[in-house]
Design brief:
Blueprint (H helix, E strand, L loop, with lengths): L3 E7 L2 H14 L3 E8 L3 E8 L1 H15 L3 E7 L4 H7 L10 E7 L2 H14 L3 E8 L5 E8 L1 H12 L2 H4 L2 E7 L4 H9 L2
Antiparallel strand pairs: 1-3, 1-4, 2-3, 5-7, 5-8, 6-7
Helix pairs in contact: 1-2, 4-5
Length: 185
């Protein structure tokens, strides 16, 4: 079953925690992750049915509109995206890799959603750096043509171009690189 997902970034911790409480009390949702993001922001990732996510997001907007910096909803999340957000890394043969760095969590989520829906590449890691203002790093893997297609799709939306810090493709990563990236955590 594909879950719906909701993402919120608030400009302060107090409203972020209170907003999360309002959403949990007002809608049947699960919190996948929540955290303080320097400098003093708070993000929340929630999972549930589409109707419950929509209800929770409306609760947030109705009560914390002035504190919400950004929000995003995914109606049907692909399994690899959901697993990567939960910190479950894919156990697959790592072929070609794309490593994408973004300025914030929401941009990273949009990129991961585009990847999971428009290519055969798989999301193998989704990292959020709380200490660096929510900068996000996404690692995707697959056959070279799939990874290249995913990167092309990511770069199409004009509103994302200035939020992508770096994007690199490694056609055939060295075994030591794969071992270092995915086994020495």
């Amino acid at each position: 079953m594909n879950s719906a997902l909701g993402f919120l970034e608030l400009n302060n911790v107090s409203d972020g925690i209170t907003c999360m409480d309002f959403m949990l009390k007002g809608a049947l949702i699960n919190v996948i992750r929540s955290s303080l993001v320097n400098p003093g922001k708070f993000f929340i990732i929630i999972e549930g049915s589409y109707g419950n996510i929509e209800n929770a997001m409306q609760i947030a907007v109705n009560n914390f509109d002035k504190s919400i910096e950004d929000f995003y909803m995914i109606g049907k999340a692909e399994e690899d995206l959901l697993n990567s957000l939960k910190g479950i890394e894919a156990n697959e043969k790592l072929e070609s890799l794309a490593i994408i760095d973004t300025l914030n969590v929401i941009t990273g989520v949009i990129i991961a959603d585009i990847t999971s829906k428009t290519s055969d590449a798989n999301i193998v890691r989704f990292n959020i750096s709380e200490a660096m203002g929510g900068r996000t790093n996404i690692v995707i893997s697959g056959e070279y043509s799939s990874v290249k297609h995913a990167v092309e799709q990511i770069c199409l939306p004009m509103h994302l171009k200035d939020k992508i810090i770096a994007c690199n493709i490694i056609a055939n990563p060295h075994d030591t690189l794969k071992e270092t990236l995915f086994h020495n955590r």
